[in-house]
Amino acid sequence: MSLSLRINIVDSNVTKTIVFSSPTTVHDACRIIREKCPEATVQHKDYGLFLTDEDNTTGVWLEPARNLEYYILKSGDTIEYRNKLRTLRVKMLDGSLKTMMVDDSQIVANMMVVVCTKLGITNHDEYSLVLEEPENQENIDSRNYGTLTLKRKKEEREKKNDKMEQLRKKLHTDDEVNWLDPSKTLREQGIDEHETVLLRRKFFFSDQNIDSRDPVQLNLLYVQARDAILNGAHPITQDKACEFAGVQCQIQFGDHIESKHKPGFLDLKEFLPQWYAKIKGIEKKVFQEHKKCSGLNELEAKVKYTKTARSLPTYGVTFFLVKEKMKGKNKLVPRLLGVTKDSVLRLDEKTKETIQTWPLTTVRRWGASPNTFTLDFGDYSDQYYSVQTTDAEQIQQIIAGYIDIILKKKQAKDHFGIDGDEGSTMFEESVAPHKASIIQHESSNIGKLDVHSLAKPAILRTGDSGQKQIHMGAMESPKLTTSHRDTKVHMLLSEPQRALISTIEATHTKIKESEIELETKAQYPEIGSDAAAKKWKQVTLDTSKQNVGSQIAAMNAATAQVSVVTLTLAQDEVDHHAVGAAITTIGSNLPEMTREVKKIIAFTDDQNMGDKLLDATRHLCKAFSDLLRAAEPESKEPKQSLLNAASRVGDASTQVLATIGEDTAENKELQDLLMSLAKAVANTTAALVLKAKNIASTCDDQQTQN
Known about the structure:
GO terms for molecular function: actin binding; integrin binding; structural constituent of cytoskeleton. This protein is α+β, with helices and mostly antiparallel strands and 706 residues long. It is 43% helix and 14% strand.
């Protein structure tokens, strides 16, 4: 069945009508457009098809592997052929604005990887984007109700809703935050290049590990905690409010200066919750707390602020205002439902004090509908917990998000013992008892004197072999020798280090298997030479190239993580779980990439290109082997060897991508990021060694110098 579509080439503002067959894939449709439209031949890898809605503000990107008939298109429909790369304006909590290029066809969850990487944030799964909307107009009077009875009922209903809205604004619940849907693209949510989104932490899972070594995340965490304290999201006492304000003064103004920091200097609304800012004489208390922070630099003061904020009982809780049934009565009353990284909470709607706690491990399932949210605790509870709310979908996303993060961390950690999963590697070491044995010469005891008579009866015996020679000699004096053997000292490894070694060994095995697999060619049956066969062959070839590109991108990102985590920290501070997770990523992607490479070699007509691709892939496998050897916890090689290995991985990856023609701007950008991180580590290490030499030269004692 033929399909006549109007193709709007956005960059050239040209619209052409092209006839396709319904089973045509989106990937092939783009190729046909490039063949028939000279305006569409520039940087075709960055372009795709976009189907707009009636209002032209939202729409969906067509997936390359789908057929056109999947989208229920009809003849005469208009589809845009446009660039998938677009600018995204990201506003930080401190007010700074970042503009970056992103892939518009990716859903928000995938886009967060790129956004956070460009901002220097590692745990991208704990952040999300918020769309800031102008405040809704209030007090709009639209009193066209009809009869007085209906008017009265509607007024009563609105009065109840007004009370809930006022309570919601007072409590600063998560209902107010307009999070973007992580499962949709920006275009599907109507966000164009001119809109600005706000980056916020959505999940508080690994924030306790953030300190002065990660100034980017530390600043984001500080600003978000400060805003939550000032707007009243965290109920605190007056003394605690003064303590927070004092640390904030240290961050903004430095050490306390008596002549400068006097009452009237501060705008108290920016340092205290509004109900404390009006108290007379409270500014003196703030400056007293400010004095206690003298000597702290900005980063240290931010660490102190966030550490104190974590001690608050409401820290890390995502609040939702719901209605629950009052016990013993058929009446719904307001209640706060909270979600943390390890539990679900029932809280008092006025004081935010915890009434009941359910660990996330007891939540068996949940159900979300437009007006209700229900939790099922299985055998841990006799009945369901059900509440009335219009934010059931948001509650569900928060709970599912925390469970997702927990499962990812658990898989990366590779637990030991009973709690470990089936695929985990167990390390068992048996220490047998030994006893010491002393070996030395012993002198024989002197026995008693025996007296015998020589007068005995004669015995006549015949000689066996005639006369014999007599030999004279003397016994040598005993000699004492001392032997010395050096005791072997074995370094005791921690559990994370043993797990990392096990992961590295498993990945080494996968690399060897991949190298062996490259020795044989992939065998496929004859597919013919007709048009359909050629088309299938070309689609398979293009798909394999795209898969190789994405797998290399994932492995390069993992290589960068190994380099940054291993080279920037001391041996006892290295997060071996993070290194293990990155190496696992390499081990899982490399065999898949090898199979795709063999498929490309089998289907390509250029024998020279196939040989080059095979050599480049082997070099990449060898580069990964060198990287793993340099990343071992017991490795005695200098850190420069890890840096060189990471550089070789980048070079080999670039060679593979260049050979198959998939060396895109994104891959180059990732390669540049990898090299810049490696160079930064090298420069920092060199500066550290130089400073150490300068300090050592000032010491008089030779042993201290060494």
